[in-house]
Amino acid sequence: MTDTEKLAHLLDKLLAKNCSFAVWALPGSNTPEILLTDQEDMIYPSQLNKLNGQEGFVFAPYHIEEDKPLVLLKPGIYQKGVDAILSIDVDQLAVQNTAQQTQPKHIIIQKDDYLKSIETTIETINTSKLSKVIVSRLIPHARGDESLGSLYMQLLQQTPNAMVYLVNLPQAGLWMGATPEVLLKSEGKTIETVSLAGTQSRRSDSDYSWHTKEIEEQAFVSRYLLDVFYRFNIHPYTTQGPETLESGKVAHLMTSFRFAAKKLAHKLGDFVADLHPTPAVCGYPKSRADKFISKIEQHDRRYYTGYLGPWRLNESVRLFVNLRCMEITPENYVLYSGGGITSRSVPEDEWEETINKAGTLLSAIEAVQKK
């Protein structure tokens, strides 16, 4: 077997034992990392700011609730690199509690209903103080007998410039994704966060033109980040962009913001708590958009548009917004996909955007199912 096949087999064995773990590869690295934790060593902080002083791998929902907790995997077994991961003796790991958890109810809406919800959203934006709202939907795809380990390796091979992950966690469930959006990156003396919004299909020639709708959509996010900076007295800072970021089947507008890490020396958890959710996944103004989402979306977002990543692991933080993701049930892959709605949105275009965004995961699923 190749190393890729060996790693896929190891992941399948971990899933067969229902081990609690996270495996991920950072954008551009192609180097997988894995953290395994005993179920009794998991931590469920009640608030985002309770992450201050902790370390491990964090998996956070859109909203923390009793049935959707913030999960922190404390470092049990941690390995980086294929050879190191393959050195793990899975046979020595105990089978974890395999009691069937209650499966969440996934509400699937048809195209006509989605288009009506977008029309309602545009009408509300035009007659209220809302400027932007993210409206999402669920896209189911039937599972076969394909290897989830092989699917993860396929996704990793297809999307090298995304945070590609697979997590299996009690209470949260089994999730896989390839997200391009940085929420927070802290390395050494610098912290970086990103304003990412606006979407179009990826071009083979990388020659992009952006319309007013996408430019405005991304500007809402940048403006919000600066409001958060003001509240935490963050200045000076540097910016780079807006520029185009290609990820999977789509491209986005992105601006990076960097500032001195000492500004948040003991308040990093508080900063993340204030930062999330950003208008890129909620809307603007945030509180109004959040209330509207709870009414217009029939499904529960669960961990979609939450965030995940290593937290103070090896003295660094790399958090990503949970986009281009899916929840894996015994019968289905349930993909989550959405788009930013403004007064300039066209409902049919928004439907197509959700299809394009889901293409990153669907193409990997179809490639593995054809083998």
Automatic annotation (TrEMBL):
<dbReference type="InterPro" id="IPR005801">
    <property type="entry name" value="ADC_synthase"/>
</dbReference>
<dbReference type="Pfam" id="PF00425">
    <property type="entry name" value="Chorismate_bind"/>
</dbReference>
<protein>
    <submittedName>
        <fullName>Isochorismate synthase</fullName>
    </submittedName>
</protein>
<feature type="domain" description="Chorismate-utilising enzyme C-terminal">
    <location>
        <begin position="111"/>
        <end position="357"/>
    </location>
</feature>
<dbReference type="InterPro" id="IPR015890">
    <property type="entry name" value="Chorismate_C"/>
</dbReference>
